[in-house]
Batch of 4 targets.
Target 1
Amino acid sequence: MSNKDSLFQRFLTWLRGDSKSIKSRFFHRPLERLDLFVSTNIKGETYTEWYRRRMNRMASISNKVNKPVSQRYLDNAKIQVEYMKHKGMMPASKVLEYGCGILRVGLHLVPYLEDNKYVAADISDLRVEKGVRILKEQGIDPSRYSTVILTDATAKELGDDQFDFIMAHDVFAHMPLDECESCLVSLKKYLAKDGQLLVTFDVSDKPTSTNAKDYWFTQDQIARIAAAANFLVEEQLDWMDFKLPTQETQRMFRFVHPD
Ligand SMILES: C[S@@+](CC[C@H](N)C(=O)[O-])C[C@H]1O[C@@H](n2cnc3c(N)ncnc32)[C@H](O)[C@@H]1O
């Protein structure tokens, strides 16, 4: 490659930025930010209501083109199950997966747990429907677990259930801090007295958001929202032995009741 070519390549890489695409950086991302701004500042929607529409739109596109789910993506969810076992989960434990997506955790968790101990909750009905289909294809009957579709951060649809474990993997990394705080406050009443709420965050030295739906928080910010929701919180360094090496900035935090 000539010097001229390599300079041009470097210029292109610089133009793409962290979006890795010029179209995404200068068209999709700004458009999505504008859509979020209009929804939350003009139409009066909450962030979660906006994100719910976004997730359903993406799911509907992927359903239309019948996009296959990669086996590696499904297999990677095993680490979440292994981690909860490491934290004391037993077959009789009651587990809520908050932000279950296409139920890839359920695929590995339902066979381990006693029947009706796994509740999978998400704001996107289309993603959950897809997940139920995937589990059925793997021979897991829907009567062995429950799904709940949430409409906003209050999670009111969960009713009176209480859980020994609540896992929210890669969910709080996709909402702004005030929405994370609202979700924590809501989840408090669903956590059993000695239960553990396990949440991953993307952590950085300074608050960062590269687009409308990806957020990095500082340890101090996480401590602040935990205190506001009246939770004790502690980073779980043992997650480093489980997490994927590609999830560089992802950290695991355990929230428990103060007494
Ligand atoms: C990146 S996916 C992760 C899915 C799953 N936890 C996993 O590891 O396979 C994030 C999921 O969180 C859901 N989600 C986002 N905000 C939520 C909220 N406030 N309550 C429940 N689910 C939410 C999204 O719809 C999406 O399915």
Note: DSSP finds nine helices and nine strands in the chain.
Target 2
Amino acid sequence: MPEILMGRIVKGVGGLYDIALDSGDTVSCRAKGSFRHDDVKPYVGDIVSVGYDDAGNPVIAEIKERKNSLIRPPLANLDVIFVVLSAKNPTADLLTADKLIAIAEHNGIEPIIVISKGDLDTDNAEKIRKTYEKCGFTVFESAMCDENSVKCDRIYDFIKENLSDKISAFAGASGAGKSTLMNSLFPSLGIATGEVSQKIGRGRHTTRHVELFPMSTLVGTGSGFFADTPGFTMLDFVRFDFFDKEDLPATFREFSEHIGKCKYTKCTHTREEGCSVLEAVKNKSIPKSRHESYIDLFNVLKEKHKWDKKQ
Ligand SMILES: Nc1nc2c(ncn2[C@@H]2O[C@H](COP(=O)(O)OP(=O)(O)O)[C@@H](O)[C@H]2O)c(=O)[nH]1
Ligand SMILES: [Mg+2]
Ligand SMILES: [Zn+2]
């Protein structure tokens, strides 16, 4: 009886999966037939065991429990998401960014902010940096250094020192500079950059796939991976209505020191008197844009609850 091998799915195209085995080898195989029967689909990022079918071919035999999973792009066990916010062209939409950050926090994914295109609008880059630093996020800035690359050695060092055993990915609006960053950090990958028209862009994205690249080749050390996620814009993340409005305050990390300190125990932190969060917004220790995003998301989730009850 051949031994069972453990590994990580690094690529999946048309039902054929590439698995980076713990032994260092790579194997290409399909999933056990019973998965389809049970409606289970292996995701890139899954930790799996590889066994053998009756004909002696390797097959994915078991998928280990996921820490989290995203639907678009299909990706499991993401640890860190770099949220790329461009200072200009396009000017980052902070509401969309905060929604993405909230979903990441809810799924145990650490959001890290990267401000791009500061060279096009220094003031806005500074404003975004202050906003997110105040909330306790790690914030990086990347600046264009020649026609096709950005200066990102601080991000590279951070990845090497802190994320070499984790799975990380970039997310951000189309045109924010994700591919440029990916290329500048890891030139060996040769990711396609540049703006694509909406129409062509969509067509192209559907034909490309998520792929994990091993940190051992990208930064020379570690068991982790960096995900290339073509078309990973803010809106393609998990469905927002997956969580409840009661879970929302915990996804705004700068609220944490205020939770439990409001006058009303059931305070929603939207308009109540004696609300510790509102007080912090007033004295500017919580950025106004973050609280505006909170209220916006709260209202969306509130409507969802009403709708659920009507059903
Ligand atoms: N001025 C400036 N342009 C940038 C910067 N980063 C990326 N770009 C340009 O913005 C465009 C879109 O970048 P790309 O990496 O393809 O964005 P993506 O859609 O997020 O992958 C390209 O023309 C890049 O050269 C930056 O920091 N400053
Ligand atoms: Mg791109
Ligand atoms: Zn409150």
Note: The chain has three domains: 5-65, 70-236, 243-310.
Target 3
Amino acid sequence: MHEMSVTQNVMEIVLQQAKEAGATRVKSVKLRFGTLTSIVPDCVAFYFEQMTPGTLAEGAKLDVEMVPLRLKCGQCGEEFEGQDELDVTCPKCGNPFTETLSGREMEVASIDVDT
Ligand SMILES: [Zn+2]
């Protein structure tokens, strides 16, 4: 049910932006989610279709980009991709203390509208 509230937030942002742009219709919406958010894009697309009828975003194309988890070693500066930020060591020097560079994103990257 996580996706439902996320989609509601997305809708609020999209409709707000569309309104500010003086849009008559939202043509497409691009979202960006980090893999750490464990968002299922298909679920978001499902809720999006449920929520858009009757709004400016009705019929808009939804595009979801997943951002991989990227980590940076605090010791040697090596940057690498990981699956789980809690269980990771640097592949170069074995240091377990890493910094998360990306993977937590949850944002509306862009919207395309008709004005
Ligand atoms: Zn390292």
Note: The chain is about 25% helix and 35% strand.
Target 4
Amino acid sequence: MYTPGLSAPPRVTEGASMSNAQTILITGATAGIGKHTAIYLHKKGHRVIATGRNERALAALRELGLSTVAMDVTSRESIQRAVESVREMTDGKGVDVLVNNAGYGLLGPLEELSDEDVRAQFETNVFGLLAVTRAFLPAMHARGSGRVINVSSVGGRMVFPLGGAYHATKFAVEAMSDALRIELKQFGIDVSVIEPGYIATEFTATTVAHARKYQRPDSPYASAMEIVANAENTVAKLAVGPQSVARAIEHAATSRWPRARYVAPFYNALGPWMISMLPTALTDWFMRRAAGLYARKQLASPRATA
Ligand SMILES: NC(=O)c1ccc[n+]([C@@H]2O[C@H](COP(=O)([O-])OP(=O)(O)OC[C@H]3O[C@@H](n4cnc5c(N)ncnc54)[C@H](OP(=O)(O)O)[C@@H]3O)[C@@H](O)[C@H]2O)c1
């Protein structure tokens, strides 16, 4: 069983020599962690294939010298086209390292989220990741080597209220990564999970935008959803830059001994550890206070009396 380590991933400061330069494909490389990591690894001398949906953002990465391929992880046709492009670009070799990073957050009370939105959340964060992995594995099998790096979250091992749908996808990513790591080792393919803490990217803005339709004044969760709406002016200020995540991905991609899990920045391992150590009643109380999910006396849900 994994026990969160409190050691930071080692820094790799020198550029990749020609002999250890890897061909690294990153999904969702048009913004945030994926974009930062793509540029970082490119500067380190690796051949980075940045993928995503936003053609303008891909063009900007090409300007910087990166290779790019259009890919929407929710479209099987788009994934297949990307596999073919990569096959041509790599003379049939495929990629050494696949970084499954594309994802977004859906926030809202599980009771109120539409089936359609929850399914779409899983379609990108879980089924998209699995489809991309399956599509790029055959070339790794053929070579007898490769690495798959799945960007999960600290939220793949602990849960915040209103994040139930998002956390469920990241718990799924953790479970699938554990299974893949054990299944694929025999073929020379390593699988690592990256668990970022709160990172300053476009993630909060996208999450708040998705949550907007669940901000209803008549909802029993209205005050909690107001906290979500203000996230950019409150909790987002605690977010740190994506450098530690890029370094963790670099270690997973290049180290002789890639780890099963990387928490980035490392001190975020404290959250899941505390949750596992403290009484649930206490952590639930804290979460309810933080998320505005409490009343001085037990209130009947407006829906129950409607
Ligand atoms: N930021 C955090 O605090 C944090 C913490 C833990 C884990 N993470 C995880 O880190 C990963 C990257 O998030 P981020 O913080 O960098 O967020 P971000 O700045 O919003 O970037 C997300 C990237 O994913 C792409 N994407 C979304 N849906 C896609 C699809 N169907 N096909 C292809 N690309 C798609 C986005 O492209 P478009 O511009 O086309 O939408 C964008 O390039 C996610 O898996 C997220 O869950 C983030």
Note: Residues 18-305 form a domain with the Rossmann fold fold (CATH 3.40.50.720).
